[in-house]
Amino acid sequence: MNLEKLRPDKYLKYLYLPNLFTAKRTKEILSVNPTVIPHREEAKEVLISVFDYNGDSLEEKRAASVADCLPYKTSGRTTWINIDGLRKADVEAVCIHFDIHPLVTEDILSINQRPKLDEADNNIFCLLNMLYYNDEKLSVEQEQISIILAKDVVISFQEDARRDVFTPLREKLKAGGGKLRQRGADLLCYALLDLIVDHYFLVMEKLGERIEEVEDEVMRGNNPRALAHITQLRKELIILKRNFSPVRELVNGFLRSESFLLEDRHTKYYKDVYDHIVQAIDLVENYRDVMVSMQDLHINNVNLKMNEVMKVMAIVTCLLAPATVIGGIFGMNFDANVDFLHQRWGFYTAVGAMLLIPALMLYGFKRRGWF
Q1: Of 8, 156, 216, 323, whose CB count within 10 A is highest?
Q2: What is the 3-state secondary structure (H, E, C) of the chain?
Q3: pLDDT above 90 coverage of the chain, percent
């Protein structure tokens, strides 16, 4: 027999009982160690799109490689370069050509980063997570997005080439006639941040629907896994909270920045994004309060059911106590001078007492309102 194929270590771990109850989702959420350099797999698919525009014209291009994007550094118009799928060589080539600091390059290629804003002399770098709700797994998924604002250029890096929330922005650029085509790169950067933050509300809407479903389960009290569902939702809320609070600091950094890349007339747009993320944070806190109340309600319902069961068992025990006492007295295994023990009607008298006394007890319990 080939022991290597059996892999006994794969099964022996289950002999340790705590391993039977490990929470994989908890590890995914909380196992973030910034001192450990994570390994990022190279993207199998990379999609590069370029939008080069001004108020009069727009050039849309699907670049075959990163080299096709480099000449747009000096195009003289506003340029948006979006790279879906990260490869180390591509990211380094773009950052070197656009004079991006090596530490920013390292942040782009890292994973599990906290949303943040870094400001340099010739660019502004911000990193945040796009959130998606997986209807099959009933969980919130994250995708790291890096945005670099330089002079007349915005470069965005996304991890997953299959998912994207910037389609409305592309359609708006193609349509023309709006402020976005007339203004500079800082308004384009605002538009990207605004779409990301607005998508947070779609995720929270899905999560809110799931919270309502679990709340119905708790109110009906017919699902023994309601507490597990509550715990799962509270974990998903942790992900939202870990993303929303840093994004508020990120947007506030744009508001406090004195960089020449940001025009004063566009401050009100970033203020609008700030208001949205504050509203999202308040909504998450409300969800959290609902989940705490729901958990308390579920525990109270369980305790109430337990009390009902214990009350019934206590009543049954009390009703059987007289019969036990009478049967014990008449069932003693020595001959004693007890009335009715050897009488003809003794048996029927004892049985009658066993029935009459519990009936009187039931009447007394009912009068007192015990059930």
Answers
A1: 156
A2: CCHHHHCHHHHHHHHCHHHHHCCHHHHHHHCCCCCCCCCCCCCCCCEEEEEEECCCCEEEEEECCHHHCHHHHHCCCEEEEEEECCCHHHHHHHHHHCCCCHHHHHHHHCCCCCCEEEECCCEEEEEEEEEEEECCCCEEEEEEEEEEEECCEEEEEECCCCCCCCHHHHHHHHHCCCHHHHCCHHHHHHHHHHHHHHHHHHHHHHHHHHHHHHHHHHHHCCCCCHHHHHHHHHHHHHHHHHHHHHHHHHHHHHHHCCCCCCCHHHHHHHHHHHHHHHHHHHHHHHHHHHHHHHHHHHHHHHHHHHHHHHHHHHHHHHHHHHHHHHHHHHCCCCCCCCCCCCCCCHHHHHHHHHHHHHHHHHHHHHHHCCC
A3: 28
